[in-house]
Every structure is written in structure tokens, then in C-alpha cells.
Design goal:
The chain is α+β, with helices and mostly antiparallel strands and 240 residues long. The chain is 22% helix and 35% strand. The protein has five helices and eleven strands. A hairpin with a 2-residue loop joins strand 5 (140-145) and strand 6 (148-153).
Length: 240
Amino acid sequence: MRRTIPLALLAALLGAPFSPSAVSPADAAGRPVVVELFTSQSCSSCPPAEALLGQIAREGGAVLPLAFHVTYWDHLDWRDTFALPAATRRQAAYAERLGGGSYTPEAVIDGQVGLVGSDAGAVRAAIARAQAAAAAEAPVALARRGNALVVTLGAGRGAGTVTLVGFDPSHATRVARGENAGRTLAQANIVRAVSEIGRWAGQAATLEVPLPAGADAAVIVQGADGRILGAARLGPAARA
């Protein structure tokens, strides 16, 4: 279900004072840089990239790292336990915009730069450049209400798609067959669900949607060119 709620009413329902500037672009200028790793349990080159993503996740800071497990390696005698067709489609869309085709491990930084996800120096340099340029053109705030997620979008510049992501902070998976047979893979911020929940066109709005699969949730607002306009994470404490 999706509906729009006036910001003042939302604040009253959540028991918080309403301020029209509460989610202004200036207040949210430090939005997280979105780091998307496209990976697979069947890819022998992916464990170092997943270890790097896990390290970045543990470091915290203004970064939203997400591991999207693709399906196109599942023919190698092992089906990735977290593979999602939506992850494969998302990477294909990036391949069309950025060139280079779909491969693993690929890291896409803030929707604009694609590079080898295990290249720690290049990944960290791209994150640093994105952090220096990041601005919340679409301010986003998230809150839980019962089994629903309330997504508050502030007024800003531009237009884009609002995408809801559910993810688990960590898993350890024993791989029985394929290129990683016999290995136990430590994986971080594994995406369990991804779906488009609306459009943002520069006006303040509120969406209320069911919580997605996964222990945590995030929302990304993304322009037609792939550029990240806004992002926020609910956080496991807020979700509990």
C-alpha cells in the first residue's frame, strides 16, 4: 500500500514536533554515499570484494554499502542462497548506462562509477570522491510504525525513482559446490528485497509501505541517469 500524508500530520502521528525545515536539503547535505556490490557465492573472485564491503560496513560513517547477489552464476552447480533477479536487472541497467557489461565482483559508487569490487584502493578513492561531492538533493528520513515503514521525502531539486531495499547485516554461508566449494563465506549487508515504491519530483511527500524482507531497510532516490539524489538507512535499532 502507498499513500501520501502531509508532513505536519506525520509528525503528529509519530509524536514529534513538526518543522518545515526538518528535512531540508541543507540539513541532509551529509547523505550516505551508496556503494553497491554485485556479487555471487559461485564467483571465486568475489570473496575479497565481500570482505572489503564488510570492512566498509563495520567502519560506519556516511556510507551505505549494499551487496546485491546476482543470478547469472547459478548455473555453476551452486545456486546463490541470496540471489535475486532484481539484483541482476539492477546491474544490467548500470551496464547500459556505464558500459562494460555485467560482471562480478563489480562495485558501483553512488550510481556513477563502476569498478572492480575487490580493488580496495580504487573503491575507497571513488567513495572519497563521491563523499566530497555528495549532496542530498532529495532529503530522505525513515521511521518505523508497526509493520510499516514511513518514508519522508523533503522538497529539493530534480526527479527520480524511490527504491526500497531490505537487507541483512551479516551472514556466514557454507558453499558446498561450484568455484567456492568447501568455503564458508562471510557476507555483509546482503540485499534480500528491492522494489520501486514511487517517484519523487522535487516536492515534499510521504510514503507508507510494508517493511521489506531483511533485518534492516534503506531507501534510495535515484535520477534517470543513475545519480543518487538521496538515501537513508532505517537502522536495526529503529526496526526492532
